[in-house]
Design a protein that fits this description.
Blueprint: H1 7-30, H2 37-50, E1 54-55, E2 74-77, E3 80-82, E4 96-105, E5 108-117, H3 124-143, H4 150-163, E6 174-176, E7 183-187, E8 204-207, E9 210-212, E10 218-220, E11 227-229, E12 235-237, E13 240-244, E14 249-251
Antiparallel strand pairs: 1-4, 2-4, 3-11, 4-5, 6-7, 6-8, 8-13, 9-12, 10-11, 13-14
Helix pairs in contact: 1-2, 3-4
Keywords: Aminopeptidase, Hydrolase, Metal-binding, Protease
Pfam families: Peptidase_M24
InterPro entries: Creatinase/aminopeptidase-like, Pept_M24, Pept_M24_MAP, Pept_M24A_MAP1
């Protein structure tokens, strides 16, 4: 299913997007050395409920998972890059933490992810990973405009990631979003320009470049959800929800303070 949002729905999407971004920034501030991943999940749930919104993850049960996700936020530490199931783990100095959050409010969803380093350490490889995904995200957004094709976005994202020296996995990538969290079209993190669905105003997309330091192969944890790099290498993940406008793309998942 591909949805084209009307003006009223876009206005709702702006509210949901800011909420997602504000929660992620709040969790980033709280994620200090010694913070438990289950605390981050609890705090996220409280903020969602206080905003009168709903989690897109609690009842999320796709074919690749093991039953409903059952938590409010994805928490990936170091080599855990996607669908990180919150568990009893206290963050350590130098951990690379990826937080991925999708929320629905007034019938419209938004999805975003950030990666950052916990504590005072700044491991060079972790910094490089994070910066590469952020640059790739910016490139994908810059390529998003009416008349462009999905392949143009994939090519822009993949070019940045490949030039940074990272192999690119295409199993999981960006996606359409609207009244539900995951919709068509799928947006691989690399591809050929000039191919695929033609973008039009009102189309909402979640773009999410992610990479692992030395592999494009994933492995599942025993929890049936958490996806890690097969080699144990560190990983990073950046994501924004955008709406296609008459002349480009508007980022919806920017925090209120920005």
């Amino acid at each position: 299913m591909i949805e084209i949002l009307n003006a009223a729905e876009v206005a709702k999407a702006r509210v949901t997007g800011r909420l997602v971004a504000d929660i992620l920034q709040a969790m980033k501030k709280r994620a200090t050395v010694g913070t438990n991943l289950l605390e981050i999940d609890q705090w996220t749930g409280q903020m969602i409920k206080e905003a009168g919104a709903e989690s897109c993850y609690i009842d999320y049960a796709p074919s690749f998972g093991r039953g409903p996700f059952g938590h409010y936020i994805c928490t990936g530490v170091n080599d855990a890059v996607l669908h990180g199931l919150p568990h009893d783990y206290e963050l350590q100095d130098g951990d690379l933490l990826s937080l991925d959050l999708a929320v629905s409010k007034d019938g419209i969803a938004a999805d975003s992810a950030i990666s950052f380093i916990v504590g005072d350490s700044r491991p060079a490889e972790s910094v490089k990973l994070i910066e590469a995904t952020e640059r790739a995200l910016a490139a994908g957004i810059a390529a998003a405009r009416p008349g462009a094709k999905i392949g143009d976005l994939s090519y822009a994202i993949g070019t940045v990631l490949s030039e940074a020296g990272y192999p690119v996995n295409t199993e999981f990538g960006g996606h359409g979003i609207g009244s539900t969290m995951h919709q068509d079209p799928h947006i691989p993190n690399t591809g050929r320009p000039g191919r695929g669905y033609v973008l039009q105003p009102g189309l909402m997309l979640a773009l999410e470049p992610w990479v692992m330091a030395d592999t494009d192969q994933l492995t599942f944890d025993a929890d049936g959800w958490t996806l890690r790099s097969k080699t144990g290498a560190r990983s990073a993940h950046s994501e924004h929800t955008v709406i296609i406008t008459d002349d480009g793309a508007e980022i919806l998942t920017l925090p209120t303070a920005s």
